[in-house]
């Protein structure tokens, strides 16, 4: 005897998105490592775990004027300690683009399992360069 289960889209209940209360609690310092044309830049950023990639893109554009150009690509990755062997691992989490809406804009660090002690790596590609590949080259 076979048992079959079907779930329709109507039966799946999605939790309504909760508004983000920026007044509650304290932010966390993020160490942001960004690079353009293999040149590394580092910033300490006060942000929150519920910060979206679009919000982080805006923070980068505030401190790095070259990134304000329309069409600039921002590829985000989490760099974290590998507990199974010495060294670090890199997890690609999403991308944004200046001047355009994208599917990853509302993605949060928390939703990607970002933890205190991790680094946020951002590859910045100017608009006049080829679009970044899905798996970008990293110097480490």
From TrEMBL:
Gene: Sap18
Family per record: Belongs to the SAP18 family.
Signal peptide bounds: none
Name of the protein: 18 kDa Sin3-associated polypeptide
Gene Ontology CC: nucleus
Bilayer-spanning residue ranges: none
InterPro entries assigned to the protein according to its UniProt record, in alphabetical order: SAP18, SAP18_sf
One Pfam family this sequence matches: SAP18
GO molecular function, one term: transcription corepressor activity
Superkingdom field: Eukaryota
């Amino acid at each position: 005897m076979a048992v079959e289960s079907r779930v329709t889209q109507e039966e799946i209940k999605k939790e309504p998105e909760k508004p983000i209360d920026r007044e509650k609690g304290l932010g966390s310092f993020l160490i942001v490592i960004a690079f353009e044309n293999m040149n590394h830049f580092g910033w300490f950023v006060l942000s929150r775990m519920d910060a979206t990639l679009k919000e982080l893109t805006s923070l980068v554009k505030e401190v790095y004027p070259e990134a304000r150009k329309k069409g600039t690509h921002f590829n985000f990755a989490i760099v974290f300690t590998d507990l199974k062997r010495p060294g670090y691992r890199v997890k690609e989490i999403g991308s944004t683009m200046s001047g355009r809406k994208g599917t990853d804009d509302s993605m949060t660090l928390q939703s990607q399992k970002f933890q205190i002690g991790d680094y946020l790596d951002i590859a910045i590609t100017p608009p006049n360069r080829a679009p970044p590949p899905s798996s970008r080259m990293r110097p480490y």
